[in-house]
């Protein structure tokens, strides 16, 4: 795991400034959530950490390395998105192991990593299921397991629960908290769900109009309505 540092990140699209001079540091093992209104720059900021977007100005550091110019695959990050996009013709094992098999890890190592990841997201016993046979929450957990097997330094999660129904979302919050604890993972998380931000984060970063308005631990004890 590793810390992440954003140094004065700005991203412009033509005349529009999507991210406007954001600096922040996420500690090793910390869970930081970006919140703020739609269009405030949450996803774009995340994408600069992932390497999916090049900042117009500023630098991104992961651990001690400046990664601003590195390709996504060389950054030690794994992403989980709102749209999980499992391969429909592959079972759970094949979906989780796809990247490892491409990289030609030997079969035993692949199996070991897949079983460990499936265990963490509580999908043991479901490795031979097809995606169509699974609930949304189970599919989302396959998506998370696919990120875990990569053994990343940093998890980047952009609205990973947005497509789930309310009850599952609450359940998955607990699962993500457990994941954070068990893996001691550094997690940067984007959501517009206040309850998610309040219950899971070590600190919440509030973005507005491309700027970091404040970053602080959740202050109140959040009770489910
Ligand atoms: P959020 O994730 O908070 O909803 P985004 O980071 O997606 O916000 O977007 C921030 C701003 O940048 C928005 O105004 C959006 O329209 C703009 N933007 C994002 N991606 C692009 C792009 N590829 N091209 C042009 N404008 C973009
Ligand atoms: P590799 O990382 O060795 O290229 P993969 O098949 O795992 O092999 O990934 C293929 C491409 O997709 C790579 O560029 C990788 O960085 C990217 N990728 C796949 N899954 C993820 C993920 N969960 N998070 C981030 N990048 C991913």
Automatic annotation (TrEMBL):
<dbReference type="GO" id="GO:0016887">
    <property type="term" value="F:ATP hydrolysis activity"/>
</dbReference>
<dbReference type="GO" id="GO:0008643">
    <property type="term" value="P:carbohydrate transport"/>
</dbReference>
<dbReference type="GO" id="GO:0140359">
    <property type="term" value="F:ABC-type transporter activity"/>
</dbReference>
<comment type="function">
    <text>Part of the ABC transporter complex XacGHIJK involved in the uptake of xylose and arabinose. Responsible for energy coupling to the transport system.</text>
</comment>
<comment type="similarity">
    <text>Belongs to the ABC transporter superfamily. Carbohydrate uptake transporter-1 (CUT1) (TC 3.A.1.1) family.</text>
</comment>
<protein>
    <recommendedName>
        <fullName>ABC-type D-xylose/L-arabinose transporter</fullName>
        <ecNumber>7.5.2.13</ecNumber>
    </recommendedName>
</protein>
<keyword id="KW-0067">ATP-binding</keyword>
<dbReference type="GO" id="GO:0005524">
    <property type="term" value="F:ATP binding"/>
</dbReference>
<keyword id="KW-0547">Nucleotide-binding</keyword>
<dbReference type="GO" id="GO:0055052">
    <property type="term" value="C:ATP-binding cassette (ABC) transporter complex, substrate-binding subunit-containing"/>
</dbReference>
<comment type="subunit">
    <text>The complex is composed of two ATP-binding proteins (XacJ and XacK), two transmembrane proteins (XacH and XacI) and a solute-binding protein (XacG).</text>
</comment>
<feature type="domain" description="ABC transporter">
    <location>
        <begin position="4"/>
        <end position="225"/>
    </location>
</feature>
<keyword id="KW-0813">Transport</keyword>
